[in-house]
Cyclin N-terminal domain-containing protein
Amino acid sequence: MPGGVCAVLDYEVDMMSEYVAEMATRVVTPEAAVTSPFRKFVSQILTSTRLPSTTILLGMNYLAKRINTLKGQGPYKASEGQVWRYLTVSLLLGSKFLDDNTFQNRSWSEVSGIAVSELNSLEFEWVESMGWRLYVNLDMSKDYQAWLENWRDWQSMKKRQVAQASRERLASVVPAIDTDIARYSGHRQSPQSRYLQEQVAEYERYQAMKSQQQSYRPRESGWGHTSWGAPLTPPDSGYGTPDYAMSATSSNDRYNEWFSQAAAQYANRYPQPPAHSTFYPNSRHNSYSGHYHYSQNMWEHGLAECSCTGCVDPMKQQVPYFVPHGYSQPVMG
């Protein structure tokens, strides 16, 4: 049978001390609470004797039987001091039953602080009430197995309580994560969210500038009063236009017909003034023949800004952009 002193304990001293103190108080004085001095007393005994769990649980079995015997003899009420003495004797008997060569009553007196004479008297009364039958079959005894199962359950419960207390302590230290994204204002947004908003705003500004550039058209003075129709060049004869087999440029007849119609339409829309001859008596200029002039338009470059003779006369000497169709008869002076 296991007994004696353990070099390596099969339990935690603090947890076993709390268990023994709680169970002893519940058995001897059920109405009382566990006191801190009594818990320290139990821890001192277990630390000094280094009893195995088998000896401790067997001693608790002896303690329960002793209290039941006392209650069966009549009204029973124990004091706090009696809990200390009864627990010491129960552990002493359990140690002697499993290993009678380890401790003597003098050793238990030194550990517990109870006089040797008092320990001897209490031990005698105890074993006498039991009929000197200390033997317990640890494998077959239902009482001992009940204590063993109770210790295991209590130990598991305490471990769960310790883990729960540790989680609650950490939860009070670490702040909870706020998952309500809607409560975040602009200055609390994440860097990625702010970057996306900046990119969207930049794209919208770019689209606005692009639309303004497309809607803008340069305005010139000639556009305000001149309405232009079709250009004087066919639509498929511009620069870079490929030659197709059935295009207008591939057929001279169709091209000439289209050009004649466009020229006639242009002449009807913008009538020409009658031919006249212009003579400047200024000695600085030589006389020149008069000829037909088209009305000035935006296609003719070098137009004068004013109508004085000093500005208009030099401009008249420039060749117009469009070559006139006819020539006037020179006037001999």
